[in-house]
């Protein structure tokens, strides 16, 4: 069966209102043909467009997800996905995230890339030349569903689970640090939550940006100067513990800090 524009619009509206009202909706997958990625991305695009039209937000970046085979195995998915980052989703290190704004907050840490120029060719050379700097980041992960996400169309339709990003304070020129060998550790209140190495992310985090650049060009939305790009989780995605300071440290890049606030 084919998916009508009316269905795409209706599901996107459901997701938009669920995010706005902090509630859950039924999974998207039973309403789409099996693994219909085009329909899922069409829903995600309309979801983003609704936020831009009705809330006045603007796109400032994009994220790649499911780049880590450890994460892929856990959720039963075997390929990356992507979503958008709006300006109201970007937070500085040290922020407090009110848990009342999320359904079920999850934490992951990754390398964020910021561009100095547009990427119009999906080659390693073109991508590396366009990178301004890298910094450690948390992705703020939250879904509009009441349970675990096991089908890729569900995560894609819901903006690939991206509900925000917390950026570290340190900025490092690309190439200063070998991103394949960096070690990442997340702690919450001093207790280790997860760890990993940079090579977990498609063997090199920049490969995630190359993949994203190619996908963005094919869809007619190339990556632009100034965009923040999340390359994918270095470790596992875990529940975000409440009311303790969470710190992600990435060797050579510094750290990023945030707290999930149950009183907010």
Largest sheet: 8 strands, mixed
Give the N-terminus to C-terminus distance in angstroms. Answer: 44 Å
Q: What is the CATH class?
A: Alpha Beta
Domains, number: 1
- What would you say the CATH architecture is? Alpha-Beta Complex
Shape: globular
Mean pLDDT: 96
The helix fraction, in percent, is: 25-40%
Content of β-strand: 25-35%
**CATH superfamily grouping:** Fumarylacetoacetase-like, C-terminal domain
Write down the CATH topology: Fumarylacetoacetate hydrolase, domain 2
**Helix and strand element order:** HHEHEEEEHEHEEEHEEEE
> What is the β-strand count?
13
Radius of gyration (CA) equals: 17 Å
Structural write-up:
This protein is α+β, with helices and mostly antiparallel strands and 264 residues long. The chain has one domain (59-261): Fumarylacetoacetate hydrolase, domain 2 (Alpha-Beta Complex). It is 27% helix and 30% strand. It contains six helices and 13 strands. Strands 1, 2, 3, 5, 6, 7, 10 and 11 form an eight-stranded mixed β-sheet that branches. A five-stranded mixed β-sheet has the order 4-13-12-8-9, with no helix packed on it. α1 crosses α2. The longest helix is centred in the first third of the chain and has 19 residues, at 37-55. The protein starts with a helix and ends with a strand. 45% of the residues are buried. The model has no long low-confidence stretch (mean pLDDT 96).
Topology:
Elements: H1 5-21, H2 37-55, E1 59-65, H3 69-75, E2 81-86, E3 90-92, E4 95-98, E5 106-115, H4 124-130, E6 131-141, H5 152-157, E7 162-167, E8 183-188, E9 191-197, H6 205-218, E10 228-230, E11 238-239, E12 245-250, E13 254-261
Parallel strand pairs: 1-10, 3-7, 4-13
Antiparallel strand pairs: 1-2, 5-6, 5-10, 5-11, 6-7, 8-9, 8-12, 12-13
Helix pairs in contact: 1-2
């Amino acid at each position: 069966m084919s998916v009508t524009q009316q269905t795409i619009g209706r599901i996107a509206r459901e997701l938009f209102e669920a995010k706005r009202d902090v509630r859950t909706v039924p999974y998207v997958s039973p309403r789409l043909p099996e693994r219909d990625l085009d329909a899922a991305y069409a829903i995600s695009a309309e979801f983003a467009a609704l936020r831009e039209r009705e809330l006045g937000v603007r796109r400032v970046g994009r994220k790649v997800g499911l780049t880590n085979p450890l994460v892929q195995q856990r959720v039963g998915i075997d390929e990356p996905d992507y979503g958008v980052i709006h300006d109201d989703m970007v937070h500085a290190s040290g922020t407090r995230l009110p848990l009342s704004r999320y359904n079920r907050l999850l934490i992951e840490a990754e390398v964020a890339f910021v561009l100095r120029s547009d990427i119009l060719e999906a080659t390693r050379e073109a991508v590396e030349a366009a990178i301004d700097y890298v910094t450690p980041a948390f992705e703020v992960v939250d879904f509009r569903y009441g349970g675990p996400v096991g089908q890729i169309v569900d995560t894609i339709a819901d903006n690939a689970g991206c509900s925000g990003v917390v950026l570290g304070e340190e900025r490092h020129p690309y190439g200063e640090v070998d991103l394949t060998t960096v070690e990442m550790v997340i702690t919450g209140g001093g207790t280790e939550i997860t760890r990993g190495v940079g090579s977990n992310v498609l063997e090199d985090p920049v490969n995630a940006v190359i993949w994203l650049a190619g996908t963005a060009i094919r869809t007619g939305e190339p990556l632009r100067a100034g965009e923040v790009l999340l390359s994918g989780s270095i470790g596992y995605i875990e529940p975000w513990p409440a009311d303790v300071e969470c710190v992600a440290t990435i060797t050579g890049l510094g750290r990023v800090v945030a707290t999930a606030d149950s009183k907010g």
